[in-house]
Give the backbone structure.
Amino acid sequence: MTDNINTATAASTHTKETSIPICPDNRKPCALDWAESSWIRWIYVILWSWLNPILNIGYKRELTIDDLYDVSSNDECGLFLKKLETALEKHESMGTFKIIIKVFSKECFLVGLILFPYIAVKIAQPLLLKQIVLTIYDSNIPSYEGYLYAIGLGVATVLQACIHHQYFFRSTRLGMHVRIAFTSFIYKRLLSLPTSSTVKTTTGHLVNLISNDLSKLANLSAYIHQLWAAPFEAIIVFVLIWKQIGIPTIFGYSVLLLLVPLQLFFSKKFGTDRNNTIEWSDKRVKTINEILVGCQIVKMYRWEEALEAIVYDARKNELNSIQKASRIRAINMGISFASLSIISLATFGGSLLMGQVLSSTDIFMILSLFSNLRYPLTIALPYTIEVLSESRIASKRINSFMNLSKQTVRTKTLQECSSGNDNPRLGGIVIDRASFTWGSTQSIELKDIDLNVNPGSLIGIIGTTGSCKSSLFAAILGEMSLVEGMSKVYGKIAYVSQTGWIFAGTIRENIVFCKPFDKEKYERVLRSCRLFADLRSFSAGDATVLSEKGVNLSGGQKARLSLARALYTEADIYLFDDPLAAVDSSVARKIFEQCISNNGILKNKTRLLVTHQLQFLPEFDYCVLLDHGKIEKQGSFNELLSIDRIKTSYEKQEYNTNITTETNRRRDSDVYDCDVTDQSETIDEFSIVKNEISVHGAVNINVWLKLFTSGYGWIGLIVLIFVMFLGEVASNVANV
């Protein structure tokens, strides 16, 4: 369906904006916004004084979530989601990198400007150090100049620290903005994808997409400026050293330039191993998810050991890829640590071969300049290239997900006026010679469907199992691809699926589903869905906490709860996919009369009911008989009785219904027609879902020892400590 058609389902509600308050109301506004709101408060920003209230509380006691500031208005995910959607509306074919450039280029540019004063104060320090050394060795220079240079060196060091932390904070914040924007977009896109698209991805793929791939984009956003800042700083340093020693500068930079392609090669290898790691991670998470979903079947057939072996093999392959990537990273880090010594050796060795005599001031300055280049050229730049390689892989995976909906031709529907009760067609459905399929490569599921549903009518859809009754609802909802013909839906839709959908929360939360609470309407819905007796059976009533998928409910309770959620939703069209099959016949009759029939609370709404209970046929305004994806016959109840098998089935079910005893009816009346007390303030003391609590204290030393010895045992730990100690000794000897 088109985006302007609002679809509210029993499992999820499709709306353009959903706001659920998750932050405590007693939080203080973000102090950073206050500090940045006026230029006279710049000192609070530079010195991070806006964090003092939290630091003071943390000094006195342990911080809680209520002590933190509220989220800054500049960090709201809705803000970046809107920017992302606006950019995609104008350029639907843009890839991930182009979207980031389009949406975040201004913020990225402003962050990059901070590096210019940062590089300036970094380079100023070796020059000031040279002047201090000259002052010490040259007695002709006034001593006060040495003090001024020393003060300047101190100021430059302080400025470097302040600017560095501002850059790091704002670049990391930029990465966070990228991550929350794409996380929100992926989540919203996932909710709006048709079923034919969601089957092309897996839970493991989506988990890795958000937890791993988006983190790579966030890291790239934080380090992207090193791609130009490191070479820019290297050029400036080259010019300064060239002025001091001339040609020997080329020897040092030759070594430096040789290291860059070597690190590019290692980055490419790292990207390959990283891609393999992601693939194995997807398989492992997918397998574990399938085990958790089907844990009851796994235990019933005693498949634990077999599935454990599958997970172990997937994890083993994943660890092998991680180890390969870690070895490459270790080589890169080793090169970065050794680079300064090698470059200095090449530079000073070249000077020695050319017969140059370097003064102590030149040596101090050159070593200091090379030391400044060590981090940007041998650590930051290779890491950025490494992250760029990972981000390219991540962007391809994100692009493939974003293109899922583009690969599926959605049902073309129209809504002439979704809002406004004066629209005469509101609540109508028109399907004219339409054929639908679940995917462009699959066979046609529904063929030559002609259906004209008038607003406010009650339509019964019947047929044998496998006759595509549920597929017809999926076509109306826009979950199937329209191959030919026309399909129009007018108004907002509420859908109740065959399997009740329950989320972790109270019974009231499952029914109200983020809508404003209306007590009168709420109790009317409970009475119509026969839920009062069920609430009385729970100690906390409608405050009873349900677990994920409602494992503490029966099948009939799940069905009636999902039905109640749909009824509480104000929709124009209601699609009921056989929700009465999960309850007994007497309860089904009462629910049908009070909810769905022309005498129920939805009597003025358009209702489509899929059912195998033919005793309801006389109640329908119009009946549709489906057979293998085609409409075999449609018309009134009497017209469908002209088909022998329908007449026989109807008479048989009518007979079974009539033999229901009056005792059962009286029992049902006594049980289900009672009122429920107001339990809005009741707390479920026996909730199946327990709140998380934080445990305070120190981690036992045995836990750390087990962690450090889990890989290669005690021998590996001892060798690691010895190698680290030896490395520090070698580093100190090299610096002497």
In short: The mean pLDDT is 80.
